[in-house]
Amino acid sequence: MNKQPAQAATGFSYSRADFEELVDYALAHARKLGATDAGAEASEGCGLSVSVRKGELETVERNRDKSLGITVYLNSQRGNASTSDFSRGAIERTVQAAYDIARFTAQDPVAGLPEPEDVAPTESHRDLDLFHPWELTSEQAAELALRCERAAFDTDKRITNSEGAGVSAQQSHFFSAHTHGFRGGYASSRHSISVAPIAGRGDEMQRDAWYSSMRSAQELASPESVGRYAAERALARLKSRKIATRECPVLFESPLAAGLLGGYVQATSGGSLYRKSSFLLDSLGKQVFPEHIDVLEDPFVKRGKGSAAFDEEGVRTSARKVVDAGRVGGYFLSSYSARKLGMKTTGNAGGSHNLTLSSRLTSPDDTLVEMLKKLGTGLFVIELMGQGVNYVTGDYSRGASGFWVENGEIAYPVQEITIAGNLKDMLMGIEAVGADTYNYGAKTVGSILVNRMKVAGS
Predict the structure, then answer these.
(1) SS3 133
(2) Which of 199, 174, 198, 204 is nearest to 187 (CA)?
């Protein structure tokens, strides 16, 4: 079970025992009012965020918030309400509000808590090592941010400006329970260092950014390495030009490749499927990627950003192959969406857990340099703009910038272009996946080479 450190070491105002007492009181009051079922969650978060710009302190923000949410069921009617007031009277009023909402809400035959057999038993709650508080003063945070920005400026005299650098240290914990037998919660943390330098002057200026984000501050990249890499990215974009409209292969840098995987997840998530707003309806067991592509989901990665022994409903999670040899092996379903589809929950209420997209053709030598060689002549994309993705049809159109590649080597930077295609064709058109893996939130993937897309330029 995930350990709950003492309050003195966490900076939290409430203990796990405090939260259990609040949640139990809310559930007992819901039962007293006549609820057939109920669920409640108490949570607290706190943190520090500091930003600097051009060598001077800009902002220091400390955040602290708390909440208790209650969901009440009257058979197939549901109501929920929340409060930041933890007094008994406020909790009673919040439960009453949820109860009243449920009374006047239309019946929904699939509404309800998860089935008792799907609930993660308390003894199965693994310690996934997600909580690493960072005892950081605002002065120390500012110094780290200044070091990061200074490293960017020191990289090259052509780094002339900055949108700033920042350091953030965040931690939270929660406890949740419901009347189908679930009881659980844990503490977690997320810390980061980031910077956004600007290269060039006048009409010839380019901006880029980089960051490091981890559960433990000890695993963050050094401020200097983050600053230098961000600067190098901005410098590489100087003297960007447009290119003529054409069709060509496109290589997505690994952080952007995670977005392609995210598009697949959205299209195979329960909400999109039961609303019939997905381009991958009825895709279970069907080929949507080439045969060399697999996607694994592992909720139990130690310190993983998408790790959880149970989902937001208290349903047990499990490691599984969601794409096997290019075929859809499973959807991403909550109890509600599973019932709407006549299926079983997959333990994905709240989203996916530590997805890794890989290719059976990838070798450890498939670095970015090798991926550029595989691209040959085409577009290497490092930034996307806009939200031009239609998940109903799969149509894809995004503003982009990056580099034109000829004979496997970067020729020059490009900007003010648009790449377009259809996600169905793009997923099936994945020719290679790099060994240059990057973790973006709950997704890990290398650079992805798509065989052909439309590139609109001048």
Answers:
(1) coil
(2) 174
In 316-368, beta strands by DSSP E: 320-324, 327-328, 355-359
Residue 39 contacts residue 71 (beta carbons within 8 Å):
yes
Q: What is the pTM of this model?
A: 0.92
Pairwise CA distance, residues 67 & 44, whole Å: 7
Tens digit of pLDDT for each residue in 26-41?
999 999 999 999 999 9
188 Cβ contact list (under 8 Å, min separation 6)? 130, 131, 171, 172, 173, 215
Interatomic CA distance for residues 416 and 456, integer angstroms: 9
CA-based nearest residue to 329, from 257, 268, 391: 268
Measured CA to CA in angstroms, residue 344 lies from 177, 274, 335 at distances of: 21, 13, 7
Q: 166 and 49 in contact (C-beta within 8 Å)?
A: yes
Q: What is the pLDDT of residue 386?
A: 86
Q: Are 25 and 77 in contact (CB under 8 A)?
A: no
Match 């939200």 to its residue by tokens: 387
Residue 196 · residue 164 · CB < 8 Å: yes
pLDDT in the model for residue 11 = 84
Could you tell me what percentage of the chain is helix, strand and coil, using 3-state DSSP and rounding each to the nearest 5? 25, 40, 35
3-state secondary structure of 379: strand
- Is 55 within 8 Å of 150 (Cβ atoms)? yes
Hey, what are 415's tokens? Answer: 């900007």
**Within the chain, how many helices (H) and strands (E) appear?**
10, 20
pLDDT band at residue 4 under the 50/70/90 scheme: very low
For residues 332-351, one letter each, b for 16 or more C-beta atoms within 10 angstroms of the residue's C-beta and e for the rest, the string is bbbbbbbbbeebebbbbbeb
Cα separation, 150 vs 158, whole angstroms: 13
End-to-end CA distance of the chain: 58
Q: 73 pLDDT exceeds 60? A: yes
The alpha carbon of residue 234 and the mean position of all alpha carbons in its chain are separated, in whole angstroms, by 25
Q: What is the torsional sign of CA 138, 144, 145, 150?
A: positive
